[in-house]
Amino acid sequence: MKITRRALAASALALGSACGAFAAGHEPVTVGFIYVGPIGDGGWTYEHDKGRLAVEEHFGDGVRTLYQESVPEGADSERAMTQMIRQGADIIFTTSFGYMDPTINVAARFPDVKFEHATGYKRAPNVSTYSARFYEARAVLGHIAGELTESNKIGYIASFPIPEVIRGINSAYIHAKKANPDVELSVVWVYTWFDPAKEADAAKALIDQGADVLLQHTDSTAPQAAAEAAGDVYTFGQASDMPEYAPKPRVSSIIDDWAPYYIERVQAVIDGTWESTDTWDGIAPGMVRIGEISDAVPADVKAEALSLKNRLASGEYHAFTGPLNRQDGSVWLAEGETADDGTLLGMDFYVEGIVGDIPN
Amino acid sequence: MTFAGIDPLILLASLMVASTPILLAALGELVVERSGVLNLGVEGMMIVGAISGLATAVETGSPWLGLGAAALAGAALALVFGFLTQTLLSNQVATGLALTLFGLGLAALMGQGYIGVKPPPLPWPDLSGIPVLGRLLDQFDAVVLISLALLAAVAVFLKRGRAGLVLRAVGENHDAAHGLGYRVVPIRMAAIAFGGACAGLGGAHLSLVRVPQWTEGMTAGAGWIALAIVVFAGWRPWGVLLGAYLFGGTTVLQLNLQAAGVAIPVEYLSMSPYLITILVLVIMSAGRGRTAIGAPASLGRIFHASR
Amino acid sequence: MIALEKRPEPSSFWRWVAPIVAVALTMAAGGAMFAILGKDPTEAIRTIFWDPLFGPFAAHDRPQLLVKGGPLILIAIGLSLGFRAGVWNIGAEGQYILGAICGAAVALAFYPLDSWVVFPLSALAGGLGGWAWAMIPAILRTKFNTNEILVSLLLVYAAEQLLASASLGFLRNPDGAGFPGSRNLSRYDAAANREILEGSGIHWGVSAAFLAVPAAHALMTRHRVGFHIRVSGESPRAARFAGVDPNRLTIFCLGVSGALAGLAGFFEVAGPAGQISIDFNAGYGFTAIIVAFLGRLNPVGITLAGLLLALTYIGGEAAQATMGLPAAAIQAFQGMLLFFLLGVDVLTKYRIRPARRARA
Questions:
Q1: Which 245-274 residues of chain B touch chain A by CB within 8 A?
Q2: A107 in Cβ contact with A34 (< 8 Å)
Q3: Top-level CATH class of B9-121+140-285?
Q4: CA-to-CA distance for A156 and A241, rounded, in angstroms?
Q5: What chain B residue is nearest to C344 in terms of C-alpha separation?
Q6: Can you give the CATH number for the domain in which C163 is found?
Q7: Fewest 10 Å CB contacts: which of A237, B119, C95, C276?
Q8: Is the CB of residue B44 less than 8 Å from the CB of residue B201?
Q9: What is the pLDDT of residues A178-229, one digit of tens each?
């Protein structure tokens, strides 16, 4: 039985050396994508697949892409990766946090295949990680929200209490508060990644409680529809642009755009310059984009929002710049100090001013 | 008047709208089960209804045609189940589960071209001018009223009509009903189709009114809740209403409490709809005799007219 | 018109031939679906049914069949006892989750102790966790006459919420930088569920499944409890005359199925899955219900049904990766396979005859 495994590894090595041949332009480079949900989710996986299609379009016959949808974490994902390597995959993007250990496991078995793991923190010589600084975009949205609210109450639909989500809440709140010192943030945890009906209920609950601007960290348009039905409520598109609800209730959006990164990394494989890296990109390289700010937003607010966006993009301003205190009043960042990535990655606290506890 | 900042009338309206898909699906399943058939494929029929309704509404521009198509699609899928279980006498539990699996796959295939497409809105008059009830009615939509009307019709049908009596007789003892000359299989097929139509309509409420758009897996377990509610209701129509509203109400209330800033242990409250449903069920079933749970006696049993 | 006539004895010819006919019909109908989707039907069918068993990479795929089929078989064996007695445990998914949580909790409580006791104690905890979760419907059923279908089903959703809190809270990896998910048990040697024979796919959970098959067979045919189960399922009244205590039987059936589902959960979390995460459960508990019925509630049949379903999973994944078939098509294909298996099965118990008019 051991022989078979070694035989497989050997075939992988053969594939790996064949890679060199691909690089010389003899054969298309094969790119694999492992998706955690269906492409039809209209959100997270949908955007990754748009990245895949962009790769196909950019390289034409120079690449072949493979993908598998709704791959459960664990053994199933290891099998899916192995499957793609058999198909000749030179580089595989694993697009969910839960694929971290499986990616590392498979990468150890196939040292000549390149791996790119989204949102994780474990790397290897042939495993890179990449993620997006969504909190930069949330700062801009938070600013607009603070300016727009009449009731001074902003609703936030949150999925699970993990650092990524908490970071977004803090960033939005800090900038809403700067725009409007009277603002209150009301967070509703729905404890699901995906349940459009529950998102609709959560949006309604927030609106019923007086929120007139909604931010969301869930991917469906259910909150947009609830806001439209309620009348004077503003929302922001999430993951994709959601232009069908523009100019109102959707006044802007936060868009995941993986295409530039995917094209750059595939190009590196073709050129033979691929190296293991840790990428955490924000607005500047275009991994996170702000969707068009609609005319429902007053021109001066729009201008301020765009200037904030530009300052974030140029690096002149960091979304977490002191003075900032933790929720309990203790000092987190002194005047002018900016947050380090380690703290941000593991963020498990609210900043001062947000009421309520983070559930755990 | 408000409690903890929550207006009870608005809360009532929210929970009625939120509960409509499960109410419709549970109502259909109730009729199916009263005829002695257990169809666990509700989730599959709902989601096929959701995409059929959305696709039809988008293509024709008419949300009403969409609702009709959703009901038809749900019924058509239910008849596949009916053919397998009634004609080919397959096991109902397994066939129902297979129906869910098939329905989820089929709906996803059908929906590939409709991601992110917004359906035409279902018209609803501005009723906010009506005193007191206006605030309630203004939150409704046509499907909420359809669901309530269907509920009343089913209640009357089961209680008063001769046809309802026949349906119940078939569900209680299919051999005796057959002996009396009633055609067990056609009656059950009709019930199964009705159940599918209701489930499809419930799915369409999600895709055409509540969300409204198509996303894969958008029913997110509502079909299973509907099944639970039928049992919870003790197989009585008004019990279905209570069960659906209790379930929807618990969800809506916990979200409202969060939104109102009341400190609640969220991670445990997310389970509360399920636990409260269990608790109420225990209270309702305790103290009743062994046989008086209300389940149709022939439920899930295979009928074969051997004589 | 045609009519069905009940055979005096189930046909042993059709018992074996019916599944083959069903698979053939599925290939025809599924092939048509694949053709409509613009894919080569022969290649798709070959990829799904043939390649995992005999294709060029079969040496890697065959062990995977066991990894995928093992938990299905283990859970289905437990469920089949109850189903034959008329005790309907639809909530194996929840018991599976609780088994994983309890097993992982015990294992992690010992971390990093390196002792042989960790694995058996954790497995025991997993079994007990599943058992305890199944005892809730069992006790409510026997004390309050509450319907066990409903309670066991609702407890699945409660279990999913517990799983989320476990991976975000009390089982979260303290070295995981705040990310959700527990430590990886497959990297903790004392607790890891290893392959007994490397490369064979046979880990402790698979061997438990293979032990459960003859044990269940012996129980049903040789033991008094098996007789009680059979007589209760066929005629509850006759069972009472035969001295069967229905309450004890309910507790026994739910207990055994819960414990086996819990064990399957632990073996999965300590092996193929590796860690507790929000989306740890992948539907094994529900699929096992189908497996139990496809196997006609018979241990040997369940084994074959579990392996057949595993084959469609493995082959289906391959078809996605190699041919770009959407996951939804595979799901619909599996649904068709089940329809045909269930439908054709009518021939084992009934004969088809032209109907006589006189019959109503």
A1: 251-252, 255-256, 258-261, 263, 265-267, 270
A2: no
A3: mainly alpha
A4: 18
A5: B88
A6: 1.10.3470
A7: B119
A8: no
A9: 999 999 999 999 888 778 888 999 999 999 889 999 999 988 888 988 898 8
